[in-house]
Every structure is written in C-alpha cells, then in structure tokens.
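assembly run, all chains below
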Amino acid sequence: MTPPGGDKKWVGKPLRRKEDDRLVRGRGKFVDDYEMAGMRYLHFVRSPFGHARIRGIDASAAENLPGVEAVLTGAELAETVQPFMQIGPDPGAKLLDYPMAVGKVRYQGEPVAAVIAASRMVAEDAAELVEVDYEPLPAVIDAETALLDETLLHEEAGTNAIYGDRFEWGEVDRAFEEAATVVSIGRLHFHRFSSTPLENNGVVCRWEPDGKIYFVCNNSFPTFGIQFLAPALGVALEQIHVQTHDIGGSFGIKITNYPQMAVCALASRRVGGRPVKWVETRTEHLQGSGHGNERTYLDTRVALDADGVITAISSRHLDDCGAYLRYEPLGCVIWSQVVCATYRLRNLRIDFQQLVTNKCPTAPNRGYSRLQHLWFMERVLDICGHRLGIPADEMRLRNYVRPDEMPYTTPNGCVYDSGDYPAMLARAKELIGWDTWRAKQREAREAGRWVGIGIGTTLDSGTNNFGQSRILNRFLPFSGNSEAANIKIDIDGQIVVSLGSVPQGQGHETTTAQVVAEELGIHPDRVRVRTGFNTEWNTYTGHSGTYASQFAVTGLSAVHGAVGKLKKELARLAAFRLGCGEDQLSFEEGEEGPCLKGPGDASVNYWGLANLVNVNNAELPQELRELTLNCRYIYVPPFEVPDVEKKYGNLTLTYAAQLHVAVVEVDRRTCQARILDYAVVDDCGTVINPVVVEGQVHGAAAHGIGAALYETCAYDPEGNLMTSTFSDYCPITAINMPSLRCANMQTPSPFSFNGAKGMGEGGGAPLHALSAALQDALLSEGVIVGDSHNPPDAIFQTLRGMRPSPRVEVERRGA
Amino acid sequence: MIITHQGDFQVSRPRQEVYDFLTDPERFAPLLPHFKSLEVTDPNNFVVKIKVGVSHIRGTATVRLSNQERRPPEHASYTGTGSMAGGSVSLGASFDLAEVEGGTRVNWQGQAQVFGKIASVARGLLEPLTRKNIQALIDSLQGALDSGAAGGPA
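ok done. output:
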C-alpha cells in the first residue's frame, strides 16, 4: 500500500480547500445571488393532489393582480413545446412528460401553472389566486399496487410497469440443485429518501432576442439536461448557454431540474425576453425536486454451500421511480455495476421491474441504484448468516472476493480494479474494538439491553460506461465516457484551468490545482481554476458533469493530459528562448514565478513564454508559430460497448470500497436506536487530498445514518407527502451525528493514471451497517430487519408485530 | 389523509322540521364554524365560504356542496369539495333522522379527505381541529333547533 502522498510534493497532501476562502466568508456566488436588470420572478402553482384530473384553470384573478405579468399553464406550454425525450423503450417511451402538468397531475407538488411577476412576493400571492378545478383520482403510492394496473398513471403507456427484464448470469438452477442449504426470504423494502442540499434548485434564464437561451443554474449535469431541453424547446443545442457557479450541493438530484429550466425559458420568452428567476423553497424541494429510488425485493431465494458460501441468488425487484422517468430507466441497469457486491457470487437471476407511482419523480440520488442493491445483498448475507449460525464477520470472510483475485471480473463482466475487503474488515474491527464490544454486548444482553453490532461492506462504483444504457434500449446512441480539461498560460503568465465538471462541494478547484502544481513543479496557489461549468467559456464533452463518482479519474486524467500537452509546448518555446535542448529543461518555481530552467542560471518564466506566443510572435521561428499555450485534452476511459443480449460488459472503471461497523442500542422504552460507536474504513485508491476525501467520507456517512434512522419521504394513501418540512423529514444534524472512527486504506487502481478511484457517493454503507446492527440487537425478539428505514416508531411496530418481519425459511439438504 | 367522525344528538323538534332545516342551506350553512358567505347556485348546489386556518396557513376556503341523496324526512347527505391556499378537501356528510319520544334523534357521519400542504404540514393538528369544529357545528345545530330557529315552536 502506498502511504498518503508518497514522494509527491502536492498530490496526497492535506491542502485546505481553495474554495473555502470565499465560501466561509459568504462570498460564494449561488443562483439566488444573481440579479439582473429587469428581472422577473417565477412561482409555481403546485398540485395539492397526488393524482387528479385537471378540469380547468382560472388564472384571471392572478393575472389582474398588480405586478403580475403572465400566468403560464401546462396546457398552454404543451402547445409550444415537445414532450421530453424518453431514454427507455416501450412502454416507458410512450410517456408524455411536459415541463408542467397537462390534463392530469401525478404527484403532490407537480407544477400546474407558473406565475411571472415583478417580485417574488407578488408571484407567490398571485399563485394563491389561481383556481384549479381538480377531479381527484385514486393515488397509487407503492410499487406492488402499481403492478396491478388498476389505476394507471399514464394511460398512453397502458401500464404502470414501464420497464421489465430478467438479468441472469451463471448457472442459477444448477447452483440451487447443488446447494447444501437454501434460504427463502420474504419481502424486503428499501425506503424512499432524498438529499437535502443547502441550496435548493434555482434558475435564472433569459431568452434573448437572437434566440439564444442563457441559463444560470445549479444543474449538476448540464450536458445531459440540454439534450432534453433543446428538442423540447425546439431549438438547436448551440442556442442554449448554461453556466453554473458555486452550487450548494446536488448529490445527483439536481441533474433532473431541467423541466423547471424549460419553464423559466418559456416564461422569459413570454415576458419579452426579460430575465426570469426561480428559486425553490424547502417544501417545494422536498415535494417536487427528486427523491431516491424506492425498491421492494420479493421471492428471494439464496443457495449456499456447506461452508456458508453463497452460490446463487434469485429474486424479484420492483423499483418505484415516482411519477415521471426524468433520468429513468437508467437505474434499471446501473445496479448491475455491483451485481455481486463484494462477494464471489457467480450465479444470479434478478427479475427487475420499474413502476411509476403517484410520488415525486426519482433522481439519481447519491449512490444511485447501487446502494439499493448493495443493501439487499448485505441483508441477504446477514439473514443467511444469522439463520446458519455464522457470525457476520466470518460470513463475510467466507464470501468476500479475495485480494489475490483482483482485478476481479464479476459474472456480468464488470471488473473490480483493486481492493482488499478482508483487510478492511480487520482494520474496522481493530478501530472499533470488536472483541471488547462483543464482551460488552454479552454483558448488556444479560442485563436485558438490546445492543447490536453490524457490518456494512459497500462499493462506490465510479466512471460510468454509458454503453450500459444500451442494455435497456439498444438504439441509444450513447456509450463510453469522457471528460475535458483545458489549461492555458494567459498573456500575463497566469495558469488558468477550465474543467468540464460541475463541482457542488467536491473541491475540484483544489485537487486540480494540486495535480497541475505537482506536474509543473509550482505552488498550487499559482493555478487558477475557473469556478463552475460554462458552455461558452469552458471546455466540455457530451459526458461532462459531476456524477457517478468519477472526477478523480475522468476529470483529473483530463487535467493530467492537458498539462502534458502544455508542458511540451512550454518546453519547445523555452528551448528556443534559452537556446538549449528540451531535455536540458526543468519545470520549477523561479524567483520571477513559474519558469523553465535551462543550463546554468538560464531560465525563462511563463510570462516570457506567453509573451512570445501572444504579443511578440514575430520573434518566433515558423515551426513554433503553431503553439498556443492553450491546451485541451479529452480523457476517454478504455470502455467497450457491452453485449446487450448477455447484459455483459465492464460498466464502470473503478470500485472504491467502504466498510462500516456500527454498534447500536435500542432503548427498550422508546425504541430509539442510539449509536454507541461507529467505525469507517475507506479505500478510494490513491488519495489526492485527504481533507477532501475525509469530508466526503463524513458526508456520505451522515447521509446514510440519517437515511437509516431518521429521513424518509413518506406518503399517505391519498398521495400527500407527510414529510415536506425539515420538522417532519428530520435530516440528520450535528446533534444526532455520532463521532466516527475513520481510517483510510489505499489500494491504487491499475486503471487510472494516478491510482485514484472515484468516490464520494459512499455506497450507503451506514444503511447496511445499521440494518445489520439492529437485527443483531433485536434477534432475540424474533426480529428480522426487512426495511432500510428504522426510526423508533418502525422499531416499535416491528416489535409489536404491526410491521411484520420478513418470513425466512431454511431448507437444509443432505450432505 | 382521511378524517372520519360520527355521532348522534337529540333535539326536541319533529323529524320533518329537523329534516327541512338540515336540507336548507340558507339556514344550515350559517351555522358552520367561521362562516363568511353563502351562494345558492340551484336547489341542489351551493357554495359556502368559510375562514380556515391551521397555524400559519390561513385563508378562506371555498366549499362547493351538493345535496347527494334525500329521503324525506329520514335521510339527507351532502358531498362537496373545498379548496384554499395550501390544500383541498373532499367532503361527505350524512344525517339519518329517527323519531324518538320528545323529538328527533339525529345520527350523523362526516368524512373529509384532505390533500395538499395542509395535510402534509398540519397532519397532527387537523384531527383535533376537525373534531373541535364538528362539535361546534353540532352544538350550533342543536342550539338552533331547540331554540326555535328551525322554524316552529319548540
């Protein structure tokens, strides 16, 4: 293992984040900080119903309110825009998804009209005057009910099951025939939760007279969004200009705010091209931005050999994606990046269906689609372990992919690049004091206390191969991945880097500066990295964005490539200026700034070289006049298009891993689970900046702990979101966040130039570890934890039999 | 969320008078708590405006009610929908009248299906608030019927 930083000067060092200077001083620039002359403000009229037909909208009172400039309705928009493109095949492809509701509302909080006014307050007041005549319809609020198709959300699709397929690898039937033990597990359920970024969604848009549409927004994957926006608005891609600046978190869910961007564009056009601003309230965000996918696991059967090694799993998975498909059905294949989790399992059969329900549309929320599958796999492992009497740690050691098997090819062709899961487990047990806690647990149990210890091993697969989308829809023209970076030496000698990524707190300015500084032999403060994404001023590709745990690989590889090109240009110029060979030059920090040093005392700084190219080029010989000191590089990972028939291929480039161990006690009176101790071991390959990595590890842990014990998007049978404020949603805070015992391990990836693996999503390890710990705590009460969300009322209900534990049956066969 | 309440009360008026009172929006509607106005659109449909509010969510609700079923003098029922900033409600109410010694026994049943922000944010308050308002309505009905406002001698 490589120690942090190794022999590097800047890479691997705990530099303070460059971004924090402005952010902690309140000098960041977010969407709501943008003010423009003549700006108008937009406020949505939203559906109070989960499912209802719109019989009519009377906006006359709102339109007559002083200060109101226009009211747009969904029906009116539908006359001028096309429905958004659908990614998947039929029947999902038949869905008509407009920027606002047309004819029907399908989730509470869905926009039905937009008021544009001279001030935000007037727009809000006017929105209350818009009278919408609804005919309530039965709401479908769970996947199992949706499957019955008794009430259809999208009549044009003819079914609520918008995607379904069998994913099968290996010899499943044979494995079950040869199994020593078969464990059948009843219904498991992964609950619906979201992210709570500090900054809600926001857009400023101006539809300019020349047809250009100018967006300042916080969409975190604009190159994806504009491919939906342009055809819907009937404009060319090059007419759309998107800019981001500081973004107060996205966690993936801001990828799908393009419908609101479309409404703002149309609103701007409606009010004569004036800029229009829309900023979401917290309740609007919880009701109508994007939730994580909810998943139900049915008919699970597990084959094990005599040693407790899992040899096959078959199961049926129902994914609830809410009312519209916005980023779906991509989640229907993305889970298969981690199909066997961290285990040597070779035979799987998963019948996967995705269903629409009367809930907020889902978005690729942190750990998207993989954490749901990883939670399922961890539950299966622990339930089998408990029933077979194999301790949780031993069960894992018997099933883990071994380090000597790396790189490990999974049954569906994914390649785990590196990792040492047994060593991570050993380190985590050491961190938490495993044996001591086991002894304390025995004592506690003797005293009648419910104390449990749980392990969660998880993967954070990074750098998508977009070719996996063809497994869903073979006609999609997407595959591979790419990222761009540009580095230039300005006329004054400054080093300026622009990225295709869209950072939302990941510290891209810092880590980029570290890589550039390392390679140019200068201080990171010399490197200016432009903030945010910009289609006009920055470089990007069609895959650019910040998602899927990939910047350390894709973004920094692009930076590395661009710096390499720049260094070649600088060397050619310096060799000419100093009259020496390129091999006699070194890149250093000189007395007059960054420079190239030649033989003896000779040196030339960047200003001198930039001067030659930009304002003194008559001195240059002809062969050097092609140099620009403005170098773009596109990194392309080594992917191939997967075999769509076999659903086989490498779907992601790197596999960071996290291993969490949680010790919990359930209060016998209140049923509140209290975390007594918590350990985290993280392996994301070579670490570029330990401060940034630790921040991501803490954030992912907090997110997962919050989801496991507090946070949920709960709907009542009528489709009312019951957790639409922070009081009800209960996001985790410093008050209920435990102290973490953290350790880092580094198994460098052989597939990235720097050994780094993408990280940050975290794989939901706290959900796995806390479910396991709660089961360990409550096993004596006959509880099998079958749900990922376990607040006190749920534990109470489980203990009283009001929320049944999943049925588990064990069939032992003869030796 | 669905809120259901039921109960009964007795008044000293004859059944037909009670029935006439309960099916006459001009007399019945003003007894609704926080009543503001009534507009009778036709013999079977009327619109009532009432002041409503839970915590900071306050405003005027417009409730459109229809006579759903009438079996004089023993049964009457209403259905309706209401809307206000922050929510909507679907309503149902029925009255079954039985002659008893000294007057009429009224068995009533009410159901409200609440949608929107008000249901999301004020779920915990709606149940007791509804109970309180229904009790206020029943008290008013009882008072009006027993005091002679029903239109005949008590």
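The longest strand of chain A covers residues 450-464.

Chain A has a mean pLDDT of 96.

not gonna interpret more than that til we talk
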